[in-house]
What we know:
Elements: E1 16-20, E2 34-43, E3 50-53, E4 58-64
Amino acid sequence: MSSERPTAEELRQGITVEIVQGDQDVQSEDQEPIVGEIGTIYGDDPKGPEVELKSGVVGHVQSVVADE
Length: 68
């Protein structure tokens, strides 16, 4: 996968990603993204693929976290 935002088709359950919650204020762009493993993939969205992490947090994928 490239460093660009992935599509929903490129994502799989269990992949670690960085997300931004859909209900975040526009002014809160300085906040760090949330990192977690994908539990459910809902589909593509202009803001990025919408997913639910295994922790229960829902948001839009910004990037895939590289394996270390």
